[in-house]
Design goal:
ribonucleoprotein, two-stranded antiparallel ribbon, Large ribosomal subunit protein bL28, Ribosomal_bL28_bact-type, two-stranded antiparallel sheet, Bacterial_rp_bL28, mainly beta, elongated, ribosomal protein, 1 helix, 61 residues
Length: 61
């Protein structure tokens, strides 16, 4: 899974606990998209999470 180029957000690991309290390993993937962004006036493809896109930290090309 890719990491966000802005905030370094990636996959999170932990233990999922069911209603009967059985514990299994779980991986939560972050919502990371491959988008074209403007970097120093040139367009470049980067992996950016949707929270960085919504907050305006990157400018789409």
């Amino acid at each position: 899974m890719a990491k966000c180029a802005i905030c370094e957000k990636g996959a999170h690991f932990g233990i999922a606990v069911s209603h009967s309290h059985r514990r299994t390993n779980k991986k939560w993937n972050s919502n990371v998209k491959s988008v074209r962004v403007n970097v120093n006036g040139a367009a470049k493809k980067m992996y950016v999470c949707t929270s960085c896109l919504r907050s305006g930290l990157v400018e789409r090309a």
